[in-house]
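Re-run with default settings, no changes from the original entry. Doing this only to confirm the output is reproducible before filing.
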Amino acid sequence: MTASPAIDAMLAPQAAAAADESAEALHVRAAQAGDMAAFEWIVRQHEEKLFGFCCRWLRCVEDAREVCQDVFVRAWQALPEFEGRARLSTWLYQIALNLCRDRAKSRSARQRESTTTIEHLEEAPACPQNAPDANAEWRSEMQKLERGLALLPEKLRSALMLSAMEGLSHEECAQVLNCSVRGTEGRIYRARQMLLRWWNEEGQ
């Protein structure tokens, strides 16, 4: 296995941010009762991560912006039926993934040529503050990682992105993907193996 800072950082499981779930629950209940200010609070808590997920999934900033907006439109419409059996973030990722899949299948999305790689996104994750040569190497590896992710089958790519990049637990991934936990773990494992194999072959 060829060591790589980019692939190690992007594929290492990430700890989910410690959200104030009690505050979120209060805002969810208020939004369900029609409080738009409460819903705007929810949007502010989740829009950055959801936009990043849509950007990485669709590889097109314009599509990602539209899909992210649609996510919150759908969420506002469906929020009265949200029962809280899953975390709100998990429910939002499920909506986002379904909308990303729909957008990717559409003729207009397939014909778009204005794709944007990760290093060109204004909202892309910040790189470590390294020397210029190190940053150039990081950007090169990020481009390579993006190409490798794009080559994975959609089911495997989605599972790996949700787990390794979005920090969801396997149980949460399973809820988003509508799959068993064991099936989700299998997808993540196969995705890692395929990506690492491609990574090493590409470097030869």
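Residues 14-19, 116-131 have pLDDT under 50 and may be disordered. The radius of gyration is 18 Å.
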